[in-house]
Amino acid sequence: MIDLHTHTNESDGTCTPLELIDRALAMGLEALAISDHDTFAGYDQALGPAREYGLDLVCAIELSARLDSDGVKRRTVHLLGYFLHQPPSIEFRTWLQELQAARRERNVRLIAKLQSLGVEIELSEVERLGRTLTGRPHFARVLIQKGYAADWEEVFRKYLDDSAPGFVERESPDVANGIQRISAAGGLPVLAHPVRLGIRNRASEESLIGKLRDAGLRGIEVYHSDHSDSDQARYREIAKRFSLALTGGSDFHGDVKPGVALGTGVSGALRIPRSVLDELRKA
Question: 74 is in which domain, residue-wise?
Answer without folding.
Answer: 2-88+173-282
